[in-house]
Amino acid sequence: MTDQPAGDDTRRATSAAAFARYVEPEVPVLYRVALSMVGQPVDAEDLVQDTLLRAYRAIDRFDGAHPRAWLLTILRNTHRNRARTRVPSLLRTGEQDSELLDRSGASCSAEDVVVDAQFEAVVAGALAGLPAMHRVVVQLVDIDGLTYAEAALALGVPRGTVMSRLHRARARIRTRLVTAGLVPHRSRR
Amino acid sequence: MTMTPLAEMTRMARCLRTSRVLQSYLDGELDDLPAAARVVEHLEECRRCGLHAATYRAIKQALRSGRHDVDDLALRRLRAFSQALAASEGPQPAG
Q1: B92 domain residue, yes or no
Q2: Position B47 in a domain
Q3: Which CATH number is A3-83 given?
Q4: Within an 8 Å CB–CB cutoff, is residue B82 touching chain A?
Q5: Domain limits for position B60
Q6: Cβ separation of B54 and A113 shorter than 8 Å?
Q7: What would the 3-class secondary structure string for B57-95 be?
Q8: Which of B26, B29, B19, B31 is nearest to B57 (CA)?
Q9: Do B66 and A15 touch (CB under 8 A)?
Q10: Rg (CA), chain B
Q11: Which of A46, A84, A179, B37 has the highest local Cβ count within 10 Å?
């Protein structure tokens, strides 16, 4: 009888160490991804809390390989389960879209294409105007910094789907920039 | 200098080949090293594709610079929650 609690203590200590090692460093990424997926900060925080709880309960079955991928899968499943009882939240509200349009950061140059406040505003507007499934891929890869494979795990779609949605979305953003006269339509070699 | 029809067709074929993998290359997701080398070579010689590449880099840069600042308080709360779990103050892991 007395051995059992000691065994439990050891197991809990191992789980706690694994959780601290594999999960805690990923909390900022999980929060960013959750924000991209649900839009609302409060919902994102709830989603990450639920994800952390699930991860904690499953940590003793995790083999230590690719913790981010493992956590993104848990996040996606948690999000899906929550979405069953809630209104789908991939679509941003109009208020959030206008916040997106209002963004402006430091201007920088990239070769012969100048990124300035106007360029950023058109990009933000184009992003806000994308279909939700395309916009979330751009957010996950370009804004949150996920790889194609990680974004695929977060969304529960094949990597090729992430790639095609992302490339199409960026092409649409580029078209908006061309229309706005910020990028030449054609250039002679 | 005017290009011969054959040279023009060759260039167009290279442009097409590049455009198919350009974004993957810029994202660092093109695992095919010979294909990546061909992209690099083509971007150096083709101004039009070079401009496309610069545009996509600029779009990525604009998106990155426009990202929301994460709410520090929310992040701190989540870190504290995570640390509480790791300190075994949370629910016991499933067996």
Answers
A1: no
A2: yes
A3: 1.10.1740.10
A4: yes
A5: 5-86
A6: yes
A7: HHHHHHHHHCCCCCCHHHHHHHHHHHHHHHCCCCCCCCC
A8: B26
A9: no
A10: 24
A11: A46
| B15's tokens | 């442009």
DSSP state of A129: T
Give the one of A57, A112, A188 whose C-beta lies nearest to B94's C-beta: A57
The number of folded domains in chain B is 1
Q: How many residues does chain A have?
A: 189
Per-domain residue ranges of chain A: 3-83, 94-179
Nearest to A24 among B46, B51, B83 (CB): B83
Q: Find the distance separating the first CA and the last CA of chain A, reported in whole Å.
A: 81
> Which chain B residues contact residue A104 at CB under 8 A?
66
C-beta separation of B75 from A41 below 8 A: no
pLDDT tens for A35-49 read 999 988 999 999 999
The pTM score is: 0.76
Minimal C-alpha gap between A84 and chain B (Å): 24
Answer whether residue B95 is part of any domain: no
Closest CA of chain B from A87, distance in Å: 23
Q: Which residue of chain A comes nearest to B45, CA vs CA? A: A189
Residues of chain B in contact with residue A60, where contact means CB-CB under 8 angstroms, are 93-95
Class of domain A94-179 as given by CATH: mainly alpha
Helix (H, G, I), strand (E, B) or coil at A1: coil
